Structures are given as structure tokens and as C-alpha cells.
Amino acid sequence: MTLLFFFFFFTITITTSAPPPPLHPPPPHPYGLSYHINSGTSANSTDSFNTTWLSDRFFSAGSSALVSHPLNFPLPSEKTLRFFPPSSYGKKNCYTFPSLPSSSRYLLRTFTVYDNYDAKSRPPSFDVALSSTVLFSWRSPWPESTASNGAYSDLFASLSNTSSSLDLCFYGFATDAPLISSIELIQVHPAAYDAPDNIILVNYGRISCGAPQHWGAAFSNDTDRFARSWQPDSAFRKIPQDSNDVRFLSTSNSISGVDEEPNYFPMKVYQSAVTTEGTLEYELEVDAKMDYTVWLHFAEIDSSVKKVGERVFDVFINGDNVTRVDIYKQVGGFSALTLNYTLKNLSSNAFSLKLVPVVGAPLISGVENYALVPIDPSTLPLQASAMKALKESLRIPDRMGWNGDPCAPTTWDAWEGVTCRMTTDKTALVISEIDLGTQGLKGYISDQISLLSNLVSLNLSSNSLAGEIPAGLGQKSLIQVDLSNNQLTGSIPAGLASSNLKLVLLNGNLLEGRVPEQLYSVGVHGGAIDLSGNKGLCGVPSLPSCPMFWEHGRLSKRALAAKRNRYQRQKSLMLLELESQHAKGLPSPFTPL
């Protein structure tokens, strides 16, 4: 699958005047759960829109910084940032949102700004991925307005029924340090926008026609239960180009059919509209060869339209006549009408929406356009869990960047020292090799390594690992094992004697006990095995013989039982001897003279 880079941002023009305080707190989101993370800060804060921003948390590593011109940014969530120097924290770093309800859906919004915080006058190049799928690609140089003022971006994504956490990961190129200013995760209705769970909806334009400025989350006190942000339409309106030929409508009247599940479209979208006497056309930038879902919003808010047939127009999308609209006929006056269309494999980098009059003038209130991005394969959940357990048990240092998915996205490097491959059905990734020799590791080998059922090669040599070799290490897939020059103790597990092993290096440890014969046969049948430097090993050529009944580095239960039996027999014989001596009148050794 060819990797697609795409991005759509709300680039904002910053003013030094703060927005007005909220008239009243916004209503709760329909499902309650929301996180507003202010990256780079150590304390909670509340902004002028009554949003509570949490101190920076859930990050894997990184450092905090302040933008160069903090007074230019009215919101506290826009003044600070977290950055991830790869030399200290590896190329891949993540925010991991824990303990989320499974089978749930979220809006994820980020704010990204450079503002020359590092005095280098060069914004970084990096990618941003949600779990296994790359979604945004930042490349230096950035547009000057974006670098200085920042940009918002957002998407809708679902959490599978097998996961309870969500990773937002950053991958730097060369020596560039990825950065992020704020992250918001807001639970929405699971059926929002009617997208399958294996599809991410990336915002390529959310337009409020007739609105004079941005509104919604981060821009105004206006309510949107999904915390969406809406842009004015002027930058996207192609025909008519002269605003004098455009009529802007607005109303304070209530609109019926709004703020309803599953999409909870806010009333404000339908309380403004654009109309013109001729054709009305909009054009949005998109990425070619992708699928999109388009949502069109209408409401007849012109009180002069009182009956069916007074306003009729055709809707053309990329030249195709997709429908004829008579708002009053379909829903009546002051009532919301929403239409949805899916565009397959667009051939150009532009999305065109044209409203052509049939009777009267066309009218529109809002447009939303989302790219339908398939979720890329990720590491099998059990194997991902095993690798995270190994990260903890081996005490992997931050510099190695063991964060997020071990293998995905596939366009990024896997975790340092890890090699992955795709399953034969192309639906998941598995771990095939681990090469962590001479990394200064001082932990132990987690038992969960047994879950890596596709592991072919394991090299943990020349570290300072202690503890025993896990009993589950010995997958049939395993061909090479190098655990040499550590401080491993205990016996060699019988399970390690895999028939497929070709190389076994266990030398230079503190192992003891009988060596499994099948394991030793690796060397006999053309492979290589080195057990030297383990004074306690026994039972195969070149090593001492094992004591009778020696198993697993100690006397077996049979040996212990035999030893007890010999003791009991010796004790019985001694008592018989004493009784015989007493019968013959000889003094007992237990009787004082």
C-alpha cells in the first residue's frame, strides 16, 4: 500500500486582544469523557471559553518550551509546547491516552506552532500518526503564517473492542525534533458521521457559510457538543468572486432538527447562509487518489420563501449532478437539512461544489469534507503487549524510542533493534527479530516473550541481564538465540530445545543444571552451540557429568525421596544395632556411666 501524506489545517491569525469571557459554561459533551492536554505545562488552567486544560501528561518523554512571542497567543494552550529531540528520546515518541472505553469514537484535535521557540529559524520535519496510521506530515520550511501563528487540525477515529488506549505518535526526520502544543480527545457518538470503525475521518474543510469568522472550539463561546471548529467560507468561495454579488443571511430564530444524535450538528451552522442570484461554487484542496465523505448543510432561513418550489437548485460535485434540492419541500422552513455523499478515488487535488439555480437563488449553510483513511495494519495485540512487557523488564532506555506500536506505521522504522514482518494475510504485523546486544540493559527477560510466536532471532548478548531464562522461550519459529555474556541464573529450560534452532549461545552466564540433550544436539547436526563459562552446567560432552537425579539445576524430587529413604533405612539399622547391644548387656551410648 502506498503511503499517503495529507493535511488540512485551520491556520489562524493571532491578535493580542483576548476573546470575550463566556456568557455561560458550555453544556457537557454527550458522553462526558474529554481530555484537553496543554503540552509543556505543569499546572492545570482554565481559558476564557471556560475550557479546563490539564497539565501535560500521558507523554513518553520529551522537553517543554515556551513560544517566542507568548503575548501573541490569547489562549494558554497555544503558548507552550513539548518537543522530542531524537538524540535524547529516540525518533518515535507518543502520547498514550489510557483506560478508554472500548468500541468508542473520538474527535482528536491538535494545535501545532513553531514560533522559533528554539531560535534556529527552521521549523522541523516530522510525521504524526494515530496508532498505526500516518495522518499528518510536516515538512520544513512551513508556510510563514503557520510557523508563526500555528495551526489546528482534527479527525474522527474509533477505538477497537480489543483496545483500551490510544496512541498519538510523532516521528522525527534526521535530527529534527517533533513538537506539539496541545491535544484534545473528545468522545462522540459511536455512529458519528456513519464511518466504519476501520476508517479515520481526517478534516479537509469544515465551513460555516456566511459566518464572519472562525467559531466553535478554541475560537468562540458558541456550542458544539463535539467541540468542532468551523471556518468562514470566504476563502473557499470561487464563484461569485466579488463579495458584493453574495447575499449573506442570518437569523436568531431557532432551527428544528439540530443537535441530535448521532452527529449533534450545532444550531449555529444553520442560522447563517450564503446565497446569490447565479451559480454558487466552492473549491477545497484535497489529496488525489483518496476517498472522501462530504456533508452539506442547508436551512431555509429566508422568511420570504413560504412554499414549495420557490427555491430549487441542483448540486454538482466535481462536475456530477448529484441531486436537486428544494429545502422547503424536503424539511420546511427554519429546519435543518443534511445531505451526505461519498467521493471515490478523486483524480485531482481539488474538490468542487457547485450550486446551480433552477428556480430562485441557491442557498447553503455549511460544508464538511473528510478524507476516508483506512487504518493501516498494526502489531498483533498479544505481541505488542509482550514487547511492552519486555520494554519494562529489560529497562529499555528512552534514547531507543520504544514507544507506541512496535512495528507500525510501516513507513517508520520499527522499535530500535526490532525487525517485523507482515502476516501472510496482510492484516497484521509480527515480531521476527530482536537484536539488542551490547545496549547496557540491566533488567531481566519477561515471561511474556513466549507470546512472540513468530520470533526467528533473539540477541540479548553482552548486557547485564539477571534472572532465569523464561520457560516459554523456545518457539518453533526460533532459529538463533544469543544470550551470552550476561548474568543469567537457573537452568536451561527444556522448551528452548526447539528442533529449528541453528545457533545457541549461552556462554558467559551463571547457568547450572543438566543441559537438555536435544539442545546439545544442535551442534551435532550442523548448528553451533556455546555453553562455556557456566560452571554449574553438566550432562553433555565437554561438561562434567551430573550427579544422579540432577534436574533443573538441583536434585530432583526422586533424588530427594531416595535420599530420605536412605536416611530412614540407616536410622532403622542403627536402632536395631542399639537394641541388639542392649540385649547383650552392653552399655548404651545414651546411658550415663
TrEMBL record:
Record bears the keyword Signal: yes
Broad class of where this protein is predominantly found: membrane
Organism in which the protein naturally occurs: Vigna mungo (Black gram)
Keywords in alphabetical order: Membrane, Signal, Transmembrane, Transmembrane helix
Organism superkingdom: Eukaryota
Membrane topology: Single-pass membrane protein
Protein name: Malectin-like domain-containing protein
Keyword Calcium tagged: no
Compartments it resides in: Membrane
InterPro entries linked: Leu-rich_rpt, LRR_dom_sf, Malectin-like_Carb-bd_dom
Signal peptide: 1-17
GO cellular component, one term: membrane
Residue intervals of the Malectin-like domain: 41-371
